[in-house]
Amino acid sequence: MWQYTQKIFLVVIAWSGCIGNLSANKTVLYIGGLYQSVAVPGVNEEMQYGTKKALDFVNANSHILKEYELVMIENFTSIDLATMAGDALGILYDFIYEKPQLLMLIASSSSLVAQPVCEVASHYNLLQMSGSASSPGLSDRDRYPLFMRLYPSDTILVRGWEALLRHFRWKRVAIVLENAEMFSLRHDARIIIVLAHEEMARQIMCQAYLNNVYGQKFVWILIGWLKAGWYLERIGEDDVTCSNTDMKSVLDGHLSIKVSSYSQDFNKVNFHGVIPTETDLKLYTKMKSTYYFAGFAYDTIVYAALALNHSEKLLANMDPPRHLEDFTYQDAEMANYIKESAKGLQMHGVSGQVELSTTHDRISDLIIEQMQGKLPPTDGVKKIFVNLLQSLTIRIVTFVLSSLGILFSILCLILNAKFRNMKVIKISSPVLNAFIGIGCILFYIVLILFGLDISDVPPSLIPVYCSRVGDTRLTMAIVVMIVIDIAMVVVWLAVDDLRSVAIPSEKQITALIRNPHQVNTSTLNRDHQKQANYRGQHGGANSKSATVEALQKTLDAVGVFCLG
Question: What is the SS3 string spanning 217-277?
Answer without folding.
Answer: CCEEEEECCCCCCHHHCCCCCCCCCCCHHHHHHHHCCCEEEEECCCCCCHHHCEECCECCC
